[in-house]
Design a protein that fits this description.
This protein is α/β, with parallel strands linked by helices. It is about 50% helix and about 10% strand. The C terminus is likely disordered.
Length: about 500
């Protein structure tokens, strides 16, 4: 089988779920997330670097149907949100946290309309019909985007039509809601809508059902300014409040925010991140050196790619198994002609940031460049690493904008590209004197440098419990991407 015939997947989970009508994503799923535990307990935050698979969780839940799990995704960029907040500010004094709660509740109501078990109770059927009518006239709050939400607010301010909700309330509670006016601010209606949705779920004995709302892309245009930090804090608090409020009534409703972990660390002065990390957050980590250093066959990243190779062999009706050729798995089958003393997985992994995105990118570059070959050799990997490394450097440039000015980033990248061996952290401080010791911590956090001690390398993204902490006097090495990037003169970007 040729390399070009193997489906290595796509760095976009939204695209991957479309491969073979969703069959692909269910077959290649590598459950480092403990998905069943996530479905049982819920998490308000899913934390991980770009490319670690945050969106994959949502897509997998969507294509692997469960009778009692209902989910949807809100995709929203911070700049879009700023437009809406400015518009709301002209019309009312609505708090941002209330806007998020209202959006979450409207999306929950939308999910409930897909839950046919709610119709068991006749009164609930009436209430759901009224809620459906309400949602039709308030689409701007469902799967909102800047245009739809701004149009909703511009047309109706922050008030909503109470007639439909009054009918739903009467059907559920057999009494009038405490609103005589035909229109009311959604802020005043939030506690009533909460109570009604909880009652509908409880009375239908559907409290075993689980409702997830995933918020994605919120950090795509993150710049680190105070307004954006406040927006994210309000979003997290709104999700946490609703998760705990519904949970206290025995109803599983989990707004779950997909967020870069480094952004959460910047919010520690505004929110109790320690408490969130312990109780309500899940952090994606694909490699731990202490766990896997002596057993590459169990490394999740290797298994992830091995499953993708196996999928293509099986789909094409090939009955040849790795063991038939004396190989351990499908990864080793593809690297049967590997020509280096260092094991193939470790050779590739040591040149990456240990993320699914890295491996999928490298394998797809090899597929494009050497697709007619039947196995992967070291020369093919080296050629692909040049293009891949350029992509990573462009990614770093974007992420570092949160902390550094453009000319500072260029100075850092040039310094790390030119250096050929170990260096002392103090030399980095001279590049950005205004940030002092923080420069070393930031570059270590993002994986541009590793601590070099006793001829061992300690990387943030694969650190163990006893790894040393970065200090200005520590010795460091630049990531191999800086050396590999020089293999190709042309710059690439995502």
């Amino acid at each position: 089988m040729k390399i070009k015939d193997i489906e290595f997947g796509n760095i976009s989970s939204e695209v991957e779920r479309l491969i073979d009508q969703g069959v692909y994503i269910t077959r290649v799923f590598q459950d480092i997330f403990n998905i069943q535990d996530f479905l049982n307990k819920g998490k308000v935050l899913i934390l991980g670097r770009k490319g670690t698979g945050k969106t994959f969780i949502k897509e997998y839940i969507d294509v692997e149907p469960r009778y009692n799990v209902f989910s949807c995704k809100i995709s929203f960029k911070l700049k879009d949100l700023e437009v809406v907040i400015q518009e709301i500010g002209k019309l009312s004094d609505v708090r941002e946290i209330d806007l998020w709660k209202w959006i979450f509740l409207c999306n929950l109501a939308e999910l409930m309309m897909k839950d046919k078990s709610l119709d068991i109770i006749h009164e609930n059927s009436k209430a759901c019909a009224a809620i459906e009518s309400f949602l039709k006239t308030h689409r701007g709050y469902i799967e909102p985007n800047s245009f739809a939400l701004k149009e909703q607010v511009t047309r109706y301010s922050t008030t909503i039509n109470m007639n439909f909700l009054k009918r739903a309330w009467m059907a559920v509670f057999k009494k009038d809601i405490a609103f005589k006016e035909e229109r009311a601010s959604f802020v005043k209606v939030i506690p009533y809508l909460e109570k009604m949705l909880i009652e509908i779920i409880q009375s239908s004995h559907s409290d075993r059902n689980k409702y997830f709302i995933f918020v994605d892309d919120i950090d795509d245009d993150y710049s680190g300014d105070e307004d954006q930090n406040k927006s994210i804090v309000d979003l997290i608090n709104a999700a946490k409040d609703l998760f705990l409020r519904f949970g206290s009534e025995g109803v599983f409703f989990c707004p779950s925010i997909l967020l870069r972990g480094d952004i959460l660390s910047k919010l520690s002065y505004q929110i109790d991140t320690r408490k969130l990390n312990e109780d309500l957050a899940f952090k994606i980590k694909w490699y731990d050196h202490q766990t896997y250093r002596d057993n590459d066959s169990e490394v999740p990243l290797k298994n992830l790619m091995s499953k993708r190779i196996e999928y293509s062999y099986t789909k094409n009706g090939l009955t040849l198994l790795p063991k038939d050729l004396g190989q351990a798995d499908y990864w080793d089958l593809l690297f049967i002609d590997w020509d280096d003393e260092k094991e193939s997985f470790k050779y590739i992994a040591d040149n990456t940031l240990y993320r699914p995105r890295d491996f999928i990118t490298i394998f797809n570059i090899i597929k494009r460049q050497d697709g007619n070959s039947k196995s992967i050799k070291k020369s093919m990997v080296n050629k692909a690493l040049g293009e891949y490394s350029q992509k990573v450097i462009e990614e770093w440039k974007f992420e570092l904008k949160v902390f550094f000015k453009e000319f500072e980033i260029e100075s850092i990248i040039k310094y790390l590209s030119d250096i050929s061996g170990p260096f002392e952290g103090k030399s980095l401080l001279k590049l950005v004197p205004r940030l002092s010791d923080d420069v070393v911590n930031i570059l270590y956090e993002y994986g541009l440098i590793c601590i070099y001690e006793n001829e061992r390398m300690f990387w943030k993204y694969r650190e163990g419990f006893n790894d040393p902490a970065p200090e200005p006097h520590s010795t460091f090495l630049p990531h191999f991407c800086f050396k590999n990037a020089s293999r190709k003169p042309k710059r690439f970007s995502f």
